[in-house]
Amino acid sequence: MSRPGEALITIVMPVYNGSSTLRQVFDGLEMQHDKQLVKEIIIIDDVSKDDSSKQIAGYAKSSSYKVIPIYHTESSGLAGGYNEGTKSATTDYVITMHQDIVLTDRDSFSKMVTPLLEDKRVWATYPVLLHPHEVWKQYPFWQKCMFSRLVDKKSPMLTGKFDCFSRKLLESENFFDNKTYRTAGEDSDLKIKMSRRGLKSIDPNVEVIHLQSIEKSFGLKKFIKKEAQYAEAQGVVLRKHGIHDIKGVILSFFRQILLVGLLIPFVNFFAAILIIVYAFMYTKLVYEEEYRDPRIVLVPFINIYLLFVALFVSVRGFIRGRQVI
Questions:
Q1: Is the pLDDT of residue 141 over 60?
Q2: Number of helices and strands (H, E) in the chain?
């Protein structure tokens, strides 16, 4: 690796109500072997209502890194936090990191930045996201429903959760679009813009654990809201960029497509069957492991209700052209 002793990276971590995961995230950072590559960690607390700010302040004092805490008095959202931290960075490379990502590879930093140093065609790297079964078991019931489809799957993708970017790339794209996106969609937006410019991003095979939040207060209302946020962002991305990738659009809008299929003659019968299958397969692991919970009888109906939520919210996002949830 070139320039082995030089601090090349700034880590930017927006935080909002992250108290259930921050301790594990900080422990993962402290276990890294290549800390010398990180010049600074900028942590932006976006008006958290829990004790996140207290944990951040404590870590800033005890960390082996240079930690720069920023405390907002008004919320700027995830994309806004990325931009604020990136603009304050004093390095050529920036790692955007979520408040619920635990680093399991102790050489994560060197593996993430090396491809950008060795190949000038590479502008970004991204990790393999893990969703371990043992973590899923800690979730409350409705959070288990939301994430059951991801359990024990490996997902290599650029999502902003632990991605390394050339700072020049982010500057050239005017950073993340925080005027259009607030809680989701900014990663898809950036990927599409990179693809259209022919800019290369790669997976250097760095695995990280995506904890999500681990909070008892995650109820049905929050489950529906989180699904609505993602669906709204999908509609906004489609409005801004059109159909960039047919396969990607089908995967993103499969729930909306199922509902629309009910309106098409000769297709509606098959769409109805697929909706019934979806109602059970979307949360298959919940049926298998949480069948003693009386709320299990509601799950297929909630899954079908979420089809309508996704359709309505994504259409609204498409019309507005901006995420508001």
A1: yes
A2: 14, 11
* pLDDT score for 5: 57
Q: State yes or no: pLDDT of 92 exceeds 50.
A: yes
Assign 3-class secondary structure to 82-137.
HHHHHHHCCCCEEEEECCCEEECCCCHHHHHHHHHHHCCCEEEECCEEECCHHHHC
Query: At 40, which helix (H) or strand (E)?
Result: strand 38-45
Cα distances (angstroms) measured from residue 251 to each of 146, 150, 231, 235: 17, 15, 12, 13
Q: Which of 177, 210, 243 is the last residue of a domain?
A: 210
Residue 44 domain boundaries: 9-210
181 and 236 together in one domain: no
Residue 140 confidence (pLDDT) above 70: yes
Whether 303 maps to a domain, the answer reads yes
Are residues 179 and 267 located together in one domain of the fold?
A: no
**What would the pLDDT profile of 267-289 be if each residue is shown by its tens digit?**
999 999 999 999 999 999 999 99
| pLDDT score at 3 | 52
Shared domain for 308 and 203, answered yes or no, is no
What's the length of the chain?
A: 325
- Average model confidence (pLDDT) for the chain? 94
Q: Are residues 201 and 256 in the same domain?
A: no
3-state secondary structure 9-29: EEEEEEECCCCCCHHHHHHHH
By DSSP bridging, strand 9-15 and strand 93-97 are: parallel
| Together in a domain, 87 and 195 | yes
Unique residue bearing structure tokens 């900014």 = 186
Q: Is the pTM of this model over 0.85?
A: yes
Residues 86 and 132 in one domain: yes
Rounded (5°) CA angle 243-247-249: 45
Domain boundary residue, one of 176, 210, 244: 210
Residue type (1 letter), 166:
S
In angstroms, the CA 11 to CA 28 distance is 13
What is the domain-level CATH number for residue 200? 3.90.550.10
